[in-house]
Amino acid sequence: MKISEDNRGNFVLEDCERLYYRNFQGRVEKYNETGKKSFTVRFTDEEAALMLANKWNVKSKPAREEGEAAWHTMHVAVNFESKNPPRIIMLTSKGRTQLDEQLCGLLDFADIKYADMIIHPHDWTVNGNTGRKAYLQSIYVWINEDVLELKYQDVPEIGAGEQQERLAIPAEPYLEIVDGEVEF
Asked: What CA–CA distance (Å, rounded) separates 184 from 182?
């Protein structure tokens, strides 16, 4: 992953392949009782050292097994209630789609190839404690497409109304039974 800082103090993470605990939908869960939208980025040792040197709130967990690398993660909040909501773009071979607050939940279960994102820091002080929270400013997410999606990508999609009309059973039956006899 490539990490850089822009001229406004935001950090740009490019070619990020490790997005975990995705909850763009804001589902209420065991560790998310308030239903806030968020995800977690995983860093290598070197990436974590760079983020920590810049005061980002990176958590580290030791390796679970011998020979395995330690885990370094940072929680990123996705806040649509701010005056500048995040820009979320999903990219496929067909083009790009901007996802709003209701549609961004599609990313929770998508097969993500990689993402480029800008995170905005919010430095806080409460009761003498200080910290830095990461907020998503924008993210461009490339989706892995399977072979069938690629094969049929140029076939026009039928709108839901047209499809229901095509598949609807006629109001008049094809045959009718009257006094025990079949009439067509």
From this structure: 7
